[in-house]
Amino acid sequence: MNFPLFIARRMYRGTEADKRQVSRPAVLIATIGIAIGLAVMIVAVAVIVGFKSQIREIIAGFGGDIQVGNLEAAQSVETPPVVVDDSLRAVLADHPQVKRVQRFSMKAGMIKTEVAFQGMVLKGVGPEYDLSFFRRHLVEGEIPMFSDSATTNRVVLSKTLADKLHLKLGDKMDTYYIQTDIRARRLRVVGLHPPTLAEDANRFLLTDLCRVNRLTGGSRERVTGVELQLRPGASLEETTYDLATDLSGAEDAYGQAYCVRNVEQLHPQVFSWLGILDVNIWVILILMVGVAGFTMISGLLILIIERTATIGLLKSLGACNTSIRHLFLWLAVFLIGKGMVWGNLLGLLCYFVQRWTGVMRLDPATYYMDRVPVSLPFVYWLLLNVGTLLVSLLMLLGPSYLITRIRPAQSMRYE
């Protein structure tokens, strides 16, 4: 039998049962510190991970995980079209990490109303385009079925742009496009989508592919590019590299080279800002683990002082310092474990209440979402628990050496 573990269990049960002990308040405070610290870490990680995931989903929803277009796309919003025929689409769709391939075309222009004017980008999509993201986040109106063979005057634009131009559902607006001459088109607002951190997405007017191709001189196969949606769990960087390697040096029938860029390369400022949020996570984790660890140190020291006579007795019976140190470390494991159980219950309760009810609300105009998003992958939860336990025990190694300074004769003199 493991002697230190056996004695630690007996001492832990005695600590729980004996309410007269001096160490009981200190042990209770240490346990509460562990519980609150772990609960705060669980909630903080869930909110930060959820916020980052939600922002990434919103940005990718407006432009796909990866875009394949003209090489000149890196220098301009409006670029010459490239040929996206059935063979290229088949090659892209055959990649194991690619879930969907969808064409799009863009044409820069200007909106003019009776009260204001604003630059915009008309984005045309075909019938294969996945509009589920826009339907889930639609603020008002509807999302029509877009075509690549017939034109329509219906558009969906952002609530931000509509507010700037004082537009509402059903309103008509005049749009102007510069080609060899100035072309005018009258469009009707049929839907409003929420604002996003990506400023170019806020300027998009979503319409059918055929209308935009007529403005750009393209066709069903000559478009601005294709957006790729990846399968869940796919590696963004690895897939981007593989596709860029496959299309390296390839040109379409008009001599235009292809360019592969992912969502992080298209919006570097947003993802750099999201990366800074990781610093907040580490600050919270360090503070909470530090507070929990120091409360546990004070509890362990009081336990050692209160059990001085017991330590002296064990030494007189032949127990070595290492065994007694292990005994008190096992006792600390039991106390930390109890605090972690309560911390998990409290933290996970807050997590699931927010996930299922969305009780904590946000202002969509400021935060680009209407509720606090939460996401807690199992790996993160496991690392939080294992890390809290290990760091707390490591912090207790130093104070446990106080046992080596206790002398049996002196400790039992007044017993």
Brief description of this entry?
The protein has 415 residues and is α+β, with helices and mostly antiparallel strands. The chain contains 15 helices and 12 strands.
Quick tags:
415 residues; alpha+beta; six-stranded mixed beta barrel; two-stranded antiparallel ribbon; 15 helices; 12 strands
Architecture blueprint of SSEs:
Blueprint: H1 3-17, H2 23-63, E1 66-70, E2 82-83, H3 86-93, E3 98-112, E4 117-125, H4 132-136, E5 140-141, E6 154-158, H5 159-165, E7 172-178, E8 182-193, H6 199-202, E9 204-208, H7 209-216, E10 222-223, E11 225-230, H8 236-246, E12 258-262, H9 263-266, H10 268-306, H11 308-316, H12 321-357, H13 364-367, H14 378-400, H15 408-411
Parallel strand pairs: 4-9, 6-8
Antiparallel strand pairs: 1-11, 1-12, 2-10, 3-4, 3-7, 3-11, 5-8, 6-9, 7-8
Helix pairs in contact: 1-12, 2-10, 2-12, 2-14, 10-14, 12-14
Word description of this protein:
This protein is α+β, with helices and mostly antiparallel strands and 415 residues long. It has two domains: 3-58 and 270-411, no CATH class; 66-233, no CATH class. The chain has 15 helices and twelve strands. α1 (3-17) crosses α12 (321-357) and α2 (23-63) crosses α12. The two termini are 29 Å apart.
Quaternary structure of the protein: single chain
Which series of helices and strands comes N to C? HHEEHEEHEEHEEHEHEEHEHHHHHHH
Mean pLDDT: 83
How many structural domains?
2
Distance between the termini: 29 Å
Strand order of the largest sheet: 3-4-9-6-8-7
Please report the total strand number as a whole number: 12
Low-confidence stretches: none
Shape annotation? elongated
What Rg, in angstroms, do the CA atoms define? 31 Å
How many helical elements? 15
